[in-house]
Design brief:
Elements: H1 2-29, H2 36-89, E1 93-95, H3 96-103, H4 107-121, E2 124-127, E3 133-136
Helix pairs in contact: 1-2, 3-4
Length: 139
């Protein structure tokens, strides 16, 4: 389903962009000398391009934003499940390195996530003898 949505978004953005580029070209050609009828035809073509281009670009953008939001929700859910599992396994003590390794994220991302959880659950943290950071969540 994600693949179809990505392809659809790409096609909508591509076609919409083509129509909007056509509108731009037509708008630039209005300044040319010509009869009133020719200018009206150019204006009609430009309006048709806008009518087709703007909804296509809008829908393509909406699909991409929906995919991004869905991905963010899945990532948050994944991180939370790893967090709760490690809290249980380690009896409330989680090292920054272990969480980053288990979640397969960078140390900076792990620190941001654990800092948020520490504030949420009123946890403490300290530095271990080896220089690692440990978070202590009270069960």
């Amino acid at each position: 389903m994600k693949f179809i949505t990505k392809v659809s978004a790409g096609l909508l953005l591509s076609f919409g962009s083509i129509f909007l580029m056509h509108v731009t070209v037509e708008a630039l050609s209005i300044d040319r000398q010509g009869t009133q009828e020719e200018k009206q035809q150019i204006t009609d073509k430009a309006m048709a391009g806008l009518a087709l281009g703007l909804p296509a670009v809008g829908l393509g953008t909406w699909l991409i934003l929906g995919l991004r939001h869905s991905h963010q929700r899945q990532l948050t859910s994944h991180l939370q499940s790893i967090f709760y599992r490690l809290v249980e396994e380690e009896k409330g003590q989680i090292s920054l390195l272990r969480f980053a390794k288990e979640a397969e994220i960078s140390g900076e991302e792990a620190k941001l996530f654990l800092d948020c959880k520490a504030k949420e659950f009123n946890a403490t943290f300290d530095h271990g003898r080896n220089g690692g950071v440990y978070y202590h969540f009270h069960l």
